[in-house]
Write a structure and sequence with these properties.
Blueprint: H1 2-5, H2 25-29, H3 37-51, H4 60-76, H5 79-88, H6 106-109, H7 111-117, E1 134-140, H8 142-147, E2 149-160, E3 176-177, E4 186-191, E5 194-199, E6 208-209, E7 222-233, E8 242-245, E9 261-267, E10 274-276, E11 279-287, H9 288-293, E12 295-301, E13 304-310, E14 319-322, E15 338-345, H10 352-367, H11 374-391
Parallel strand pairs: 1-9, 11-15
Antiparallel strand pairs: 2-7, 3-6, 4-5, 8-9, 10-11, 12-13, 14-15
Amino acid sequence: MAAFLRQPFLTKRHFKYITVSKRDYYAVLGVDREVSDADLKKAYRRLAMKHHPDRNKSDADAEVRFKEAKEAYEVLADSKKRAAYDQFGHAGVDPSASGGFGGEGFGDVFGDIFGDIFGGGGGGQSRQRRGSDLRYRMELSLEEAVHGIEKKIKVPRMENCEICKGSGAAVGSSPKSCDTCGGRGQVRMTQGFFSVQQTCPSCRGQGSIIDDPCRPCDGQGQVRKTRTLSVKIPAGVDEGDQVRLSGEGESGGVGVQSGDLFVQVLLKPHKLFERDGDNLHCEVPVAFPILALGGDLEVPTLDGRAKLKIPAGTQSSKVFRLRGKGVTNVRHGHTGDLYCKISAETPVNLTKHQKELLEQLQKSVHSGGSKHSPKESSWADRIKSFLDEIVA
């Protein structure tokens, strides 16, 4: 076997001698083999949040699942290791075999990801940490978004325990430095030329041990509370825009900066208008006599009413533009326009007399041919030409 491990290149036939009991890495993360790097990272973050030991201190299996997901991601996130795994399975990335990974610990590899999720990284306490960011979705009417508004919201979040001041230790006591990792939160295990840095099993990456935990927060240093905040929404915000409240996210613990709160804007449907960026659109039903004869209409705007002049002979679906009657952009101050689309309304429930009048009008208009109905006449000519070509 020693001679086998010294081979400079391994083929599939070599790996039949290696017994593997690990689960498939793709199955561990719940993704398929064609998963993109972005979706792979999302899957890992979801599992890491779910099974992280700090969130599951009473679940002995959580740490096992957490490490399993971490190992799977470390391999699949590296293009070379992933290629080796896809070709040879676990044996292709086995640190005990030539060509397997080694030298870089999980803590080093995952620092960037855990800096986003848990506020810490593979570098232990030397890396700057912060509390988690929070997101709140606020529904606004079109008028509220256009003109701006100040609203109060209630946000549940983790805050430092008032009793222990976030330390997690009971009053009169304090956390002590972990003897296993020397307060670094990480331990390095070396075997031959392989060196792996891992989260300290004693303090679970905290760098300190609490012998006498604070009872109100159960030694966590944080408690969940609902905080009422006042959010000022500037005029002109649109669907998906965010307002950032610095430091209003979750607490990161003693001496650690709190995360931020992002308030995301969602617009409610409006009964008259549709918004398209800085412009507004509405449909205006108009009786056909006005379209034929022309006239003035009053149309709604967000600031009241405006007059719209309808020229004689206006066709259905004609769009009129009212400049400056749209939305003022929250960023550069430009004001959009209001577009009114004309919709011809066909009269219904006509009386006998009204029908007779329309029949007289129809005969009179029809006798004028293309003079009064140019589109209808043109359409009739195109139909005749088409049918003549078929017959010929």
